[in-house]
Each structure stands twice: as C-alpha cells, then as structure tokens.
Amino acid sequence: MAAKILQTTALTHKVMGEYYACAGKTPGRKVAWATVGMPTELLVAADMDVLFPENHSATCSAKQLGTKLCEMAEAAGLSQETCSYTRADLAVRLGGPSPYGGMPKPDILFCCTASCTTVLKWFQDIARHYGCELVVVDMPYNFSGQITDHSLEYIVYQLEEAIRRIEAVTGKPYDMKKLEQVVALSKTASDYWRKILELGATKPSPLTTTDMLINLGPITCLRGTQAAVDVYSSLHDEMQVRVREGYAAAGEERYRLIWDNIPFWFALGSTVRYLSQFGAVLVGATYLFHWVRKLEPHAPLVSLAREFCTTVTMNQSVAHKIDKIGGILKAYQADGMIIHSNRSCKADSLGTLDLQREITKRLGIPVLMVDGDHTDPRAYSEVMVQTRIQAFIEGLDAARAARAGA
C-alpha cells in the first residue's frame, strides 16, 4: 500500500504558526507565560495569550538551534548542567535566534512544579528579566498515583489564589462560567487525544510516534480552545479510516518499540530512520500520555487539580511510573522499549535503571537505554546511539530465533 500523507499535520502547522504569529498582537489582551504542567485553562478563560517557554525551546531544538543557543546561555553564565530548555530560553531572551522571532513580553508568569523544580528557578529568572509578576502553584509529590484529600484541597486553594492574581492583572472579575466552557473544550481535545493513542496501539499502527510528536503542539499550547478540538477531531477521523483499511504507517513492523522520556528533538528523524533499517518502529511514547486527562467541566478547579497532580509521571513515585509504563507496553503489544537517559531532564530520568530492570523482569520485554539531551546536541553521540540500537536489535533477533527453534 502506498505511503499516505497525514493531512492533519498541515492543519497543525497552520494552527501553531498562527498561535505564535498572533500572540501579543491584540491591543489590551494580556500575555502569560506558563509551564506545560500548569492548568493553563485558568488563563485561557481569562482571555490571555498563553505561551510556553518549554515548547518554544523544543521547537528551537527541532530546528537545529540548540547548540548555538546553549552556548550563548553558557557565555552569559549558565552552567552546562542547567536544563537545556532553560538555556535555550535565556539565549532567545538575550537576542538569540528563534523560529518565531522569540515570544512577546509576558504580563504575568505561571509556574507549576508538577514536572520538576527547575522550572521554579527558571521562571524566577524570567520574572527578574521582565519585571513581571510570578504565580507559583506547588504540586505535591504523588507517591501512590491517587491524590489525597488534603493534597487536593491544597492545590484547589492555590488555583483559587491564582484566579485572584489573574483578576489583579486583567482588572476584570473572573468568569467561572467561561472556565467551565474552556475546561469542556479541553476535555473534548483530551478525549480525542486519548482515542488517537488507543488507535495508535492497533496492529499494524496507523500512525507513528513521529506523527504524534509532530502533532503534539495544540494539546500542549492550545488546551481549552476550539483550535485544539478541530486538530484532534480531524486526526481521529483520519486514524479511524486508516484502521479500517489496515494501513501500516511505518510499513514493516518487525519490532514494535515504545520510547520513554522526552526525545532528542534535533535527532528524532535520524533515529527513526535508523531504526527503520531493521524493521523497527516507534509505535508509541510514554511522554504522549501526559496529556490524557479526565476533566469535569462542572467541577473545573477540582478536576484540574486532580488531573495535573496524577497524570505527569515526573510527579509520581518510581513504582507508580513502572506500573503505568507497563500498561502502555502491554496495550501497544511492544517488543521492546528505548529509554532516553536525558541529561537535561533529571526528573523524568529518575529511576531509569529501576524502570529498565523491572520492565524486563515483570514483562519479559527487553529495554535499551541511550544517553542524550532534548535540546543540546553536544550531550549526544549519534554513533553511540546507533551502535547501541544495532546491538539491541541483534539481541531481539537472537531471542526471536531462539523462541522459534524451541
């Protein structure tokens, strides 16, 4: 069957291009910068333009700007041990290159510690740089995967305080009915996203991890908008057609693999192409499941507090992370997993050796670990990664041959 172009990708590029092009251009409309782990539906409901330095840095990485930006930040005083997203952001703020010409000056900053604590110091630096207000939502660490009543109350209280800070910046009373509408749109987009991931687990897979990562932008940056709903409604329709036709997005699927951790954006394409030489396909990624949330529009603050505390694996115990990833591997009928030991994202790389050992022990699924960084190519070796992949595939081949001969 001839290769098909994913039509929704063009819509995603259009929507994301307009998102950056229009941000900060409407007179009187406030601009907020936020971490991706922040319930930004609160900001969308206040009619703010919401931008995400993490997403912008990832785009810079994908556009091969990582080395230049990281070197600029280090020349300005940041350590190479600092998260490369943070370094890239600082460099752009200091005049470094950006695919979108940078981001408009923020009126207010929103930082949530669900993903890591690095974001706290990062956003404090942004606040000093622009002299704007910083709102921090402290997300309790979740040991069991279930949020306790006192943790839920603690987060809701902070969200209520965040609303009061929003009112002070906008000079307008907050509209809770509008928040319910925004959360309803966010729920619809998230529901489509979940269904798309479920269809992606079909054998053969109707789309690849690369397809999903390319179309990740709206669920990250445009939650609570009709634009995000339109993108994922379209993508879901395409996936249903592909599943009915039995279409295999990657062609041969000798080995179905799952990726764990943030990808090295600058080398994602070359890694996927190298895997394809062995008939190995990345059919899923644990990172994609961070945006699967069960929101309740009639109880927006409670559901936002609950979901943002329980869906981001960086905020979970290693034991819970192992259980969650094990479920993903089973659902996708995975033959193996590749873990990116990410130099920059220490929170997401915590417990990788435990994860590698337990997944193999519990499920009998081989796991490869590769070293790298999500933005800084200087912490990545293509030769080393490809050598490890080749050895990993040879091990999968040997195991399969042994089972066939048993």
Could you characterize the architecture of this molecule?
It is a single chain. The chain has 406 residues and is of the alpha/beta class. It has a single domain, classed as Rossmann fold, CATH 3.40.50. It contains 17 helices and 8 strands. It has helices at residues 8-22, 41-44, 53-62, 66-75, 84-93, 118-130, 149-170, 176-200, 209-214, 217-221, 226-245, 268-276, 300-310, 318-331, 346-349, 352-363, 382-405, and strands at residues 31-34, 49-51, 108-112, 133-137, 255-260, 280-285, 336-342, 367-372. It has a 4-stranded parallel sheet with strand order 2-1-3-4, with helices on both faces. Strands 6-5-7-8 form a 4-stranded parallel sheet, with helices on both faces. The protein is globular. The model has no long low-confidence stretch (mean pLDDT 92).
What's a quick, concise take on this entry?
Helices cover 53% and strands 10% of the residues.
Compute the number of strand runs: 8
Structural class: alpha/beta
Percentage of helical residues? 40-55%
What is the total domain count?
Answer: 1
Shape: globular
Supply the CATH architecture.
3-Layer(aba) Sandwich
Name of the level-1 CATH class: Alpha Beta
Strand content: 5-15%
Major sheet: size, sense and barrel closure? 4 strands, parallel
| Widest sheet: strand ordering | 2-1-3-4
**If helices are DSSP runs of H or I spanning 4 or more residues, what is the number of helices?**
17
Secondary-structure element pattern, one letter each: HEHEHHHEHEHHHHHEHEHHEHHEH
Low-pLDDT stretches? none
Q: What is the radius of gyration computed over CA atoms, rounded to a whole number of angstroms? A: 21 Å
Look up the CATH topology: Rossmann fold
Mean pLDDT comes to: 92
N-to-C CA distance: 34 Å
